[in-house]
Amino acid sequence: xxIMECFLVIFILIVAIRVINERFIHMQGDIALVLFSSLLxxxxxxxxxxxxxxxxxxGVSYVGSFEFSEYLLDGVLCFMLFxxxxxxxxxxxxxxxxxxxxxxxMTTVISSAVYxxxxxxxxxxxxxxxxxxxxILFGCIVSPTDPIAATGILNKLGLSxxxxxxxESESLFNDGTGVALFVFVKSIVSRSGGExxxxxxxxxxxxxxxxxxxxxxxxxxxxxxxxxxxxxxIISLLDVSLCYAVCEKCGFSGIIASVVCGMYFSYMSDKKxxxxxxxxxxxxxxxFWDAAEEILNSVLFVMIGLSLLNAKASEYLPFIIPAAxxxxxxxxxxxxxxxxxxxxxxxxxxxxxxxxxxxxxTWTGLKGxxxxxxxxxxxxxLGSSEYLIAVNLAYATIFFTTIIQGLTTKAVYQRIERRxxxxxxKESEAAR
Length: 432
Prior knowledge:
Elements: H1 3-25, H2 29-50, H3 54-64, H4 68-85, H5 90-95, H6 97-125, H7 132-142, H8 147-153, H9 161-189, H10 197-225, H11 229-250, H12 254-271, H13 273-279, H14 284-306, H15 317-343, H16 354-363, H17 369-377, H18 384-431
């Protein structure tokens, strides 16, 4: 089975799940893709286990062994980030820049450290001997919220624009922090060097910003010269792919560069809207990126489900699943709460108090393909047992946050809003 056959399977599943979900189930689309592709993978694995058919088993293994990490990190991730960043409101981003910066940097670092310490302590309690730095590496894998999950799911749940903007912006930027932290801890776990986290972070961020602004500035000027909507789309594709490739080659953050490219092109397109709309009255440019984001998200969510076909379970799976859920929520809450304290209660967006804000940002911290890609990349330096723990943790975290948290985010948000309204009314009455 070749690459074309693999994508044929993926597209068949996307169409089938979307149509059935739209007609009968009415679940949020991206969550349905993850859920039902995962259930289908489980059913196929059961059938393959009992079927005495080598060709069938080989076909299942081939589809499941698709290079997910390479496809995401070296393929479509930059385009997905560009599309998602293009929807971020520059006005709301500026208004909440301190909050977003603290969430993107401090929350990720604190959550990773707290996750590692709690996981190490829990493992010791259950008689599982793991190095503490290895546990912190697990935290680096699952702590960054995923921009693809956030933009693909939260936009469709009816949250306020202000809240959605903060969640999206944090998700888009904190992956750079997560990757830098992952590289730093990886060097300790693998004993491959002594990279300084601060230097790695500064190099990745400043290098990414310099490349993204320089290339985007030049290519956007070129974009204003042409009158062809298709040429403008191709220029935007060139911008993000060139920036990502240069950054990855130079050791900068291609993730951050892709986000900056998307926000820059969106901001400048809004400023030049009158002149651009004359030659593109149907807004072909935005329609293309909206459609591209929807298609790439759909492919990614189905691939997460299909990757289960080649997944192996750790012997510690009964411990890993509850630990991933409980420790993941606890570490995220501590990270958000700490960033909120430093930010100051008057700077918290949406008139939330610290408890409401921490609860909301914890529950909307969805994880996705990036965590799985990072977990899979540990195969090159971890032993088989530790590697299985990393991958199983990533799967447990992704499925819980995407399916359980994703399905209940709207209800949690509405409950927090009711609590906030009651609190504000009491505060108003007390002030009279």
